[in-house]
Amino acid sequence: MHIGVVGINHKLANVSLRETIAKACQRRFFLENPLKNGTFVLLSTCNRSELYFSAEDMVQAHSEILAILKEEITHEFEQKLYTFFGFDCFLHLAKVTTGLDSAIIAETEIQGQVKLAYEAAIALRSLCKELHFLFQKCLKVGKEMRTQYLFTKLLPDLEHALFLHAHEFFEGNLPSVLFVGTSEINLKIARFLKQQGTNDITFCNRSRASSLAISREMGCQVLEWEELTSKWHHFPWLICATKSPNYLLTEGQRCTKKRLLIDLSVPRNIDPRLEQGETILLNIDHLDQLLETRRRFLEEQLYTTEISLLNAVQRLTTTFRTRNQHFRDSEEMGSHRGYYQVR
């Protein structure tokens, strides 16, 4: 299969470098297709930025991607990237979609993020049969693995970890919390906090309509987006998870009171220099460290899941090769639209 991936993740690079590469990918690979030959899907999350690509000349396409990134990034970064081709690329995306390559093992958000990345690419550009097959089958395999191996129920995940950390930080008395952004991860955390009895919740979002919809659903308060920089310090606990090319809170908006700031975004929403005195700032890398015990505990079941995943990818790769003998080119494939539907 003519498929490959160039990427960076939490295992190889800190949040600062991931942030730089995420911004470069958004500038050059989101709306445009700068490749002379081939096409791609951009997957960008808080822990990874990956370009899944396909071309007749894979070596040339790979070189083009690196050259474009070098135009955007002035310091050394290539040694932190990983590249996989063919079967290895297929297996990598299958692991990503299943949650086996995540910092928070078996997280549920990644499946939706992969699907959204695929759908966004379809809306922006024409994809070849290899990329359609790759993403549709990996999404299907990821869903099957979650159903077969219910490892997501074994240990607390991100929302539990945040709750426990805040419970310790505030000495058992959870205060009012401000969520910046109505992202899926913020909504998931907020719903969990409601279940635990935390009712003093406020949402702040660029779209007021979105904030009001959440307010009606959860019975929480709304802070106007324009008031964020002047009123955020009224909230002892702040959780940010929204997309922004620049810091939403900067060093000049420092607070001298005891505050717990959680930044789940890449690029980051909060200037690291805001952490001073009694203000504690945790970014996604800090949370990864808190959840490292989860990976060790799940090692045995993860091994079983990875073996099943490997077998599934081997089977699907063989299926693609067999089908490809009957559909010689992408134009002919387009006349058999049922092929592109995941079953």
Q: What is the strand and helix layout of this fold?
A:
Layout: E1 4-9, H1 15-29, E2 39-44, E3 48-54, H2 58-72, E4 82-85, H3 86-98, H4 109-124, H5 129-148, H6 158-169, E5 177-180, H7 184-195, E6 201-204, H8 208-218, E7 221-222, H9 228-231, E8 237-240, E9 259-263, E10 279-283, H10 284-290, H11 292-297, H12 299-324, H13 330-334
Parallel strand pairs: 5-6, 5-8, 6-7, 8-9, 9-10
Antiparallel strand pairs: 1-3, 1-4, 2-3
Order of helices and strands: EHEEHEHHHHEHEHEHEEEHHHH
CATH superfamily of the largest domain: Glutamyl-tRNA reductase, N-terminal domain
Q: Order the strands across the largest sheet as they lie in space.
A: 7-6-5-8-9-10
Contiguous helical run count: 13
Q: List segments where confidence is low: pLDDT < 50 over at least 5 consecutive residues.
A: 335-343
Tell me the distance between the termini. Answer: 20 Å
CATH topology of the largest domain: Beta Polymerase, domain 2
Beta fraction: 5-15%
Radius of gyration: 21 Å
Helix content: 40-55%
**How many extended strands?**
10
Structural class: alpha/beta
Based on the coordinates given, report the CATH architecture of the largest domain.
Answer: 2-Layer Sandwich
Largest sheet: 6 strands, parallel
User: At the first level of CATH, what is the class of the largest domain?
Assistant: Alpha Beta
Taken from the alpha-carbon principal axes, the silhouette is globular
Number of domains: 2
Mean pLDDT: 88
What does this structure look like?
- The protein has 343 residues and is an alpha/beta fold.
- It folds into two domains: 4-152 and 297-340, Glutamyl-tRNA reductase, N-terminal domain (Beta Polymerase, domain 2); 158-290, Rossmann fold (3-Layer(aba) Sandwich).
- It has 13 helices and ten strands.
- The protein has helices spanning 15-29, 58-72, 86-98, 109-124, 129-148, 158-169, 184-195, 208-218, 228-231, 284-290, 292-297, 299-324, 330-334, and strands at residues 4-9, 39-44, 48-54, 82-85, 177-180, 201-204, 221-222, 237-240, 259-263, 279-283.
- The strands form two sheets. It has a six-stranded parallel β-sheet with strand order 7-6-5-8-9-10. The chain has a four-stranded antiparallel β-sheet with strand order 2-3-1-4, with helices on both faces.
- Helix 6 packs across helix 7 (184-195).
- Residues 335-343 have low confidence and may be disordered.
